[in-house]
Write a structure and sequence with these properties.
Length: 64
């Protein structure tokens, strides 16, 4: 599946179905620091992402 990343904007290919958390860890990202969007919907990190899914990872940004 193609995973779109933000900041910097790029795409990486990840093979095989697996939980979003596993993909974040494989890419070297702390799961608590990123949100996962699958097919346009925000999903929890235990969601299984599958080959045909459209996946985007965005860093969590807080402000005040």
């Amino acid at each position: 599946m193609i995973v779109r990343l933000r900041q910097p904007s790029r795409e990486v290919e990840v093979r095989g179905d697996r939980p979003a958390r596993a993909i974040l860890l494989e890419l070297g990202f702390a799961p608590e620091a990123y949100i996962v969007i699958c097919n346009g919907t925000l999903v929890p990190s235990d969601t299984i992402l599958r080959e045909p899914d459209s996946v985007e990872l965005r860093p969590v940004i807080s402000g005040g």
